[in-house]
Amino acid sequence: MRMARLSFLAALAAAALAAAPATAAERYRFGSGPAGGAWNPAIGAGTQLLNQKLSGKYHFLHSPSAGSVANVRRVALGEFETTWAHVVQVYQQWFGTQAFTKDGVKRTFRVVANVRQQTQIIAVLADSPIKSYADMAGKKVNLLSRGSGSSVNCVNIFTALGLIDKVDARYLGFAESGRALGDRQVDVFCSAGAPFTIPALTELSMQKPVRYVSMTEAEQKKVVGKFQFYASGTIPVQKDVRGMKEPARTIQYDVFWLAHQKMSNDAVYDMLKVVAAPENLEQLSKAAGYWKTLSGNFASLKEHKIFVHPAAARYWKEQGASVPEDLVKGF
Known about the structure:
D-Maltodextrin-Binding Protein, domain 2, 2 domains, 10 strands, 20% strand
Protein backbone atom coordinates (compact mmCIF):
# COMPACT_ATOMS: atom_id res chain seq x y z
CA MET A 1 0.00 0.00 0.00
CA ARG A 2 2.82 2.39 0.94
CA MET A 3 4.57 1.59 -2.36
CA ALA A 4 1.37 2.21 -4.29
CA ARG A 5 0.92 5.58 -2.55
CA LEU A 6 4.50 6.58 -3.31
CA SER A 7 4.06 5.56 -6.93
CA PHE A 8 0.88 7.61 -7.12
CA LEU A 9 2.60 10.71 -5.66
CA ALA A 10 5.53 10.26 -8.02
CA ALA A 11 3.14 10.09 -10.95
CA LEU A 12 1.43 13.31 -9.81
CA ALA A 13 4.79 15.09 -9.50
CA ALA A 14 5.83 13.91 -12.94
CA ALA A 15 2.54 15.08 -14.42
CA ALA A 16 2.88 18.51 -12.77
CA LEU A 17 6.43 18.85 -14.06
CA ALA A 18 5.36 17.94 -17.55
CA ALA A 19 2.51 20.47 -17.45
CA ALA A 20 4.68 23.33 -16.19
CA PRO A 21 6.72 25.48 -18.58
CA ALA A 22 10.36 24.51 -18.88
CA THR A 23 11.49 27.85 -17.46
CA ALA A 24 9.64 30.73 -15.84
CA ALA A 25 9.85 34.08 -17.63
CA GLU A 26 12.51 36.42 -16.25
CA ARG A 27 10.72 39.44 -14.74
CA TYR A 28 12.16 42.94 -14.98
CA ARG A 29 10.86 46.33 -13.77
CA PHE A 30 11.34 49.15 -16.27
CA GLY A 31 11.34 52.53 -14.47
CA SER A 32 9.82 55.40 -16.46
CA GLY A 33 8.78 58.85 -15.24
CA PRO A 34 5.94 60.98 -13.87
CA ALA A 35 2.57 61.68 -15.47
CA GLY A 36 2.71 64.66 -17.84
CA GLY A 37 6.31 63.93 -18.84
CA ALA A 38 7.51 62.27 -22.04
CA TRP A 39 9.18 59.21 -20.50
CA ASN A 40 6.05 57.68 -19.01
CA PRO A 41 4.18 57.04 -22.29
CA ALA A 42 7.39 56.22 -24.19
CA ILE A 43 8.51 53.51 -21.78
CA GLY A 44 4.93 52.29 -21.46
CA ALA A 45 4.93 51.69 -25.23
CA GLY A 46 8.36 50.04 -24.98
CA THR A 47 7.30 47.55 -22.32
CA GLN A 48 4.22 46.63 -24.34
CA LEU A 49 6.37 45.87 -27.37
CA LEU A 50 8.88 43.86 -25.34
CA ASN A 51 6.15 41.78 -23.71
CA GLN A 52 4.51 41.16 -27.06
CA LYS A 53 7.71 40.07 -28.82
CA LEU A 54 9.37 38.22 -25.92
CA SER A 55 6.35 36.65 -24.27
CA GLY A 56 7.21 33.54 -22.25
CA LYS A 57 10.90 34.38 -22.06
CA TYR A 58 10.78 37.73 -20.25
CA HIS A 59 8.13 39.91 -18.67
CA PHE A 60 8.69 43.68 -18.35
CA LEU A 61 6.67 45.69 -15.85
CA HIS A 62 6.21 49.40 -16.60
CA SER A 63 6.95 51.23 -13.33
CA PRO A 64 6.21 54.98 -13.19
CA SER A 65 8.61 57.03 -11.10
CA ALA A 66 9.45 60.56 -9.96
CA GLY A 67 12.04 60.93 -12.75
CA SER A 68 15.76 60.70 -13.42
CA VAL A 69 17.05 61.08 -9.84
CA ALA A 70 14.69 58.39 -8.58
CA ASN A 71 15.43 56.17 -11.58
CA VAL A 72 19.19 56.18 -11.03
CA ARG A 73 18.86 55.60 -7.30
CA ARG A 74 16.41 52.73 -7.80
CA VAL A 75 18.39 51.03 -10.56
CA ALA A 76 21.55 51.33 -8.45
CA LEU A 77 19.72 49.61 -5.59
CA GLY A 78 18.20 46.96 -7.86
CA GLU A 79 14.63 48.17 -7.31
CA PHE A 80 14.45 48.75 -11.08
CA GLU A 81 16.25 46.35 -13.38
CA THR A 82 16.26 48.83 -16.26
CA THR A 83 15.43 52.51 -16.72
CA TRP A 84 16.30 55.81 -18.42
CA ALA A 85 18.28 58.64 -16.83
CA HIS A 86 20.02 61.91 -17.60
CA VAL A 87 23.79 61.73 -17.87
CA VAL A 88 23.92 64.18 -14.94
CA GLN A 89 22.45 61.69 -12.48
CA VAL A 90 24.32 58.75 -14.01
CA TYR A 91 27.57 60.57 -13.34
CA GLN A 92 26.58 61.63 -9.82
CA GLN A 93 25.61 58.09 -8.74
CA TRP A 94 28.67 56.57 -10.42
CA PHE A 95 30.94 58.80 -8.34
CA GLY A 96 28.68 59.30 -5.29
CA THR A 97 28.48 63.09 -5.58
CA GLN A 98 25.89 65.86 -5.12
CA ALA A 99 22.38 64.32 -4.97
CA PHE A 100 23.98 60.91 -4.33
CA THR A 101 26.58 61.85 -1.71
CA LYS A 102 24.72 59.96 1.03
CA ASP A 103 24.21 56.96 -1.29
CA GLY A 104 27.92 56.75 -1.98
CA VAL A 105 29.58 55.33 -5.09
CA LYS A 106 27.37 52.69 -6.72
CA ARG A 107 28.36 50.97 -9.95
CA THR A 108 25.80 48.17 -9.96
CA PHE A 109 24.46 49.21 -13.37
CA ARG A 110 25.74 49.66 -16.91
CA VAL A 111 24.71 51.82 -19.86
CA VAL A 112 23.02 49.90 -22.68
CA ALA A 113 22.01 52.63 -25.15
CA ASN A 114 21.89 56.35 -25.85
CA VAL A 115 18.21 57.25 -25.98
CA ARG A 116 18.55 60.80 -27.22
CA GLN A 117 19.87 64.25 -26.53
CA GLN A 118 17.47 66.50 -24.64
CA THR A 119 17.31 70.26 -24.31
CA GLN A 120 16.09 72.36 -21.42
CA ILE A 121 13.01 74.52 -22.04
CA ILE A 122 12.37 77.77 -20.19
CA ALA A 123 9.04 79.26 -21.24
CA VAL A 124 6.53 81.99 -20.39
CA LEU A 125 3.11 82.94 -21.70
CA ALA A 126 3.49 84.76 -25.02
CA ASP A 127 2.15 88.01 -23.57
CA SER A 128 4.52 87.93 -20.57
CA PRO A 129 6.78 90.97 -20.04
CA ILE A 130 9.65 88.55 -19.30
CA LYS A 131 12.04 88.70 -22.26
CA SER A 132 15.30 87.50 -20.70
CA TYR A 133 16.68 85.52 -17.77
CA ALA A 134 17.51 88.77 -15.98
CA ASP A 135 13.81 89.66 -16.11
CA MET A 136 13.01 86.56 -14.01
CA ALA A 137 14.43 88.04 -10.79
CA GLY A 138 11.58 88.34 -8.27
CA LYS A 139 9.25 86.20 -10.41
CA LYS A 140 7.58 82.87 -9.61
CA VAL A 141 9.70 80.27 -11.41
CA ASN A 142 8.65 76.62 -11.42
CA LEU A 143 11.70 74.35 -11.21
CA LEU A 144 9.66 71.12 -11.38
CA SER A 145 9.21 68.51 -8.66
CA ARG A 146 12.27 67.59 -6.62
CA GLY A 147 13.56 64.13 -7.50
CA SER A 148 13.27 64.64 -11.24
CA GLY A 149 16.29 65.15 -13.47
CA SER A 150 14.48 68.08 -15.08
CA SER A 151 14.36 69.83 -11.71
CA VAL A 152 18.10 69.32 -11.22
CA ASN A 153 18.78 70.87 -14.61
CA CYS A 154 16.50 73.82 -13.85
CA VAL A 155 18.26 74.43 -10.52
CA ASN A 156 21.67 74.10 -12.18
CA ILE A 157 20.80 76.69 -14.81
CA PHE A 158 19.51 79.26 -12.35
CA THR A 159 22.44 78.56 -10.02
CA ALA A 160 25.03 79.07 -12.77
CA LEU A 161 23.38 82.32 -13.81
CA GLY A 162 23.30 83.64 -10.23
CA LEU A 163 19.50 83.70 -10.12
CA ILE A 164 18.61 80.80 -7.82
CA ASP A 165 18.33 83.07 -4.76
CA LYS A 166 16.64 85.86 -6.69
CA VAL A 167 13.59 83.96 -7.98
CA ASP A 168 10.52 82.75 -6.09
CA ALA A 169 11.14 79.05 -6.69
CA ARG A 170 8.24 76.59 -6.95
CA TYR A 171 8.48 72.81 -7.34
CA LEU A 172 5.36 71.58 -9.15
CA GLY A 173 5.13 68.47 -11.35
CA PHE A 174 4.88 68.50 -15.15
CA ALA A 175 1.08 68.59 -15.46
CA GLU A 176 0.63 70.93 -12.48
CA SER A 177 3.23 73.38 -13.76
CA GLY A 178 1.53 73.61 -17.16
CA ARG A 179 -1.77 74.44 -15.50
CA ALA A 180 -0.08 76.88 -13.11
CA LEU A 181 1.54 78.78 -15.98
CA GLY A 182 -1.77 78.94 -17.82
CA ASP A 183 -3.54 80.23 -14.69
CA ARG A 184 -0.68 82.72 -14.07
CA GLN A 185 0.08 81.13 -10.69
CA VAL A 186 3.70 80.93 -11.87
CA ASP A 187 5.48 83.22 -14.30
CA VAL A 188 8.10 80.85 -15.72
CA PHE A 189 7.99 77.17 -16.74
CA CYS A 190 11.27 75.21 -16.73
CA SER A 191 11.44 71.62 -17.98
CA ALA A 192 13.38 69.12 -20.05
CA GLY A 193 12.42 68.95 -23.71
CA ALA A 194 12.05 65.72 -25.63
CA PRO A 195 14.02 66.96 -27.44
CA PHE A 196 12.38 70.37 -28.00
CA THR A 197 8.87 70.07 -26.54
CA ILE A 198 7.09 68.70 -23.49
CA PRO A 199 3.41 67.59 -23.61
CA ALA A 200 2.16 69.74 -20.71
CA LEU A 201 3.49 72.92 -22.32
CA THR A 202 2.55 72.08 -25.91
CA GLU A 203 -1.02 71.29 -24.81
CA LEU A 204 -1.23 74.58 -22.88
CA SER A 205 -0.10 76.53 -25.95
CA MET A 206 -3.17 75.37 -27.88
CA GLN A 207 -5.30 77.48 -25.51
CA LYS A 208 -2.79 80.08 -24.35
CA PRO A 209 0.22 80.72 -26.63
CA VAL A 210 3.64 80.41 -25.00
CA ARG A 211 7.12 81.69 -25.79
CA TYR A 212 10.52 80.08 -25.13
CA VAL A 213 13.02 82.38 -23.42
CA SER A 214 16.47 82.31 -25.02
CA MET A 215 19.80 82.43 -23.22
CA THR A 216 22.50 84.74 -24.49
CA GLU A 217 25.72 83.13 -25.70
CA ALA A 218 27.43 84.40 -22.54
CA GLU A 219 24.76 82.73 -20.38
CA GLN A 220 25.20 79.44 -22.24
CA LYS A 221 28.94 79.59 -21.58
CA LYS A 222 28.35 80.19 -17.87
CA VAL A 223 26.14 77.12 -17.52
CA VAL A 224 28.33 74.82 -19.62
CA GLY A 225 31.44 76.09 -17.87
CA LYS A 226 30.06 75.28 -14.42
CA PHE A 227 28.53 71.88 -15.25
CA GLN A 228 30.58 69.52 -17.46
CA PHE A 229 27.57 67.39 -18.41
CA TYR A 230 26.01 70.09 -20.61
CA ALA A 231 26.63 71.48 -24.07
CA SER A 232 25.29 74.60 -25.75
CA GLY A 233 22.36 74.10 -28.11
CA THR A 234 19.51 75.89 -29.86
CA ILE A 235 15.84 74.93 -29.97
CA PRO A 236 14.43 75.66 -33.44
CA VAL A 237 10.96 77.12 -33.80
CA GLN A 238 8.42 74.39 -32.99
CA LYS A 239 5.30 74.49 -35.15
CA ASP A 240 3.35 72.55 -32.50
CA VAL A 241 4.04 75.21 -29.87
CA ARG A 242 1.70 78.14 -30.53
CA GLY A 243 3.35 81.44 -29.73
CA MET A 244 6.94 80.33 -30.37
CA LYS A 245 8.24 82.53 -33.17
CA GLU A 246 12.01 82.56 -32.64
CA PRO A 247 14.70 79.93 -31.89
CA ALA A 248 15.88 79.75 -28.28
CA ARG A 249 19.44 79.17 -27.09
CA THR A 250 19.67 76.65 -24.25
CA ILE A 251 21.72 73.71 -22.95
CA GLN A 252 21.53 70.07 -24.02
CA TYR A 253 22.56 66.70 -22.56
CA ASP A 254 22.28 62.95 -23.15
CA VAL A 255 19.67 60.54 -21.81
CA PHE A 256 20.97 56.99 -21.32
CA TRP A 257 19.28 53.60 -20.97
CA LEU A 258 20.61 51.64 -17.98
CA ALA A 259 20.48 48.02 -16.82
CA HIS A 260 21.12 46.65 -13.32
CA GLN A 261 23.52 43.75 -12.79
CA LYS A 262 20.56 41.46 -11.98
CA MET A 263 19.54 41.45 -15.65
CA SER A 264 20.96 38.48 -17.51
CA ASN A 265 23.27 39.10 -20.47
CA ASP A 266 20.72 37.43 -22.73
CA ALA A 267 17.96 39.72 -21.45
CA VAL A 268 19.97 42.86 -22.17
CA TYR A 269 20.88 41.64 -25.66
CA ASP A 270 17.34 40.46 -26.49
CA MET A 271 15.79 43.66 -25.13
CA LEU A 272 17.92 45.78 -27.45
CA LYS A 273 17.49 43.42 -30.39
CA VAL A 274 13.71 43.75 -30.18
CA VAL A 275 13.45 47.49 -29.52
CA ALA A 276 16.15 48.58 -32.00
CA ALA A 277 15.02 46.34 -34.87
CA PRO A 278 14.13 48.84 -37.64
CA GLU A 279 10.53 47.70 -38.05
CA ASN A 280 9.93 47.70 -34.27
CA LEU A 281 11.68 51.02 -33.73
CA GLU A 282 9.54 52.59 -36.45
CA GLN A 283 6.41 51.28 -34.72
CA LEU A 284 7.58 52.55 -31.34
CA SER A 285 8.54 55.95 -32.73
CA LYS A 286 5.02 56.46 -34.09
CA ALA A 287 3.58 55.76 -30.64
CA ALA A 288 6.24 57.75 -28.78
CA GLY A 289 8.70 59.92 -30.72
CA TYR A 290 11.22 59.68 -27.90
CA TRP A 291 12.48 56.39 -29.40
CA LYS A 292 13.45 57.84 -32.80
CA THR A 293 17.09 58.50 -31.97
CA LEU A 294 17.99 55.35 -30.02
CA SER A 295 21.64 54.51 -30.73
CA GLY A 296 24.91 53.00 -29.58
CA ASN A 297 26.62 56.38 -29.30
CA PHE A 298 28.55 56.28 -26.01
CA ALA A 299 31.12 58.96 -26.85
CA SER A 300 30.10 61.30 -24.03
CA LEU A 301 30.84 58.57 -21.46
CA LYS A 302 34.56 58.46 -22.33
CA GLU A 303 35.48 61.52 -20.31
CA HIS A 304 33.81 60.09 -17.20
CA LYS A 305 34.80 56.40 -17.64
CA ILE A 306 31.25 55.15 -17.10
CA PHE A 307 30.92 51.56 -18.31
CA VAL A 308 28.86 50.05 -21.13
CA HIS A 309 27.23 46.64 -20.66
CA PRO A 310 29.10 43.89 -22.58
CA ALA A 311 25.88 42.47 -24.04
CA ALA A 312 24.88 45.94 -25.22
CA ALA A 313 28.34 46.50 -26.73
CA ARG A 314 27.99 43.19 -28.58
CA TYR A 315 24.61 44.22 -30.00
CA TRP A 316 25.66 47.71 -31.11
CA LYS A 317 28.89 46.45 -32.69
CA GLU A 318 26.83 44.02 -34.74
CA GLN A 319 24.90 47.04 -36.02
CA GLY A 320 28.14 48.78 -37.05
CA ALA A 321 28.47 51.16 -34.10
CA SER A 322 31.90 52.06 -32.75
CA VAL A 323 31.92 51.25 -29.03
CA PRO A 324 35.07 52.35 -27.13
CA GLU A 325 36.66 49.13 -25.85
CA ASP A 326 37.90 50.75 -22.65
CA LEU A 327 34.30 51.45 -21.63
CA VAL A 328 33.07 47.86 -22.00
CA LYS A 329 33.15 46.10 -18.63
CA GLY A 330 30.96 43.54 -16.87
CA PHE A 331 30.38 43.13 -13.15
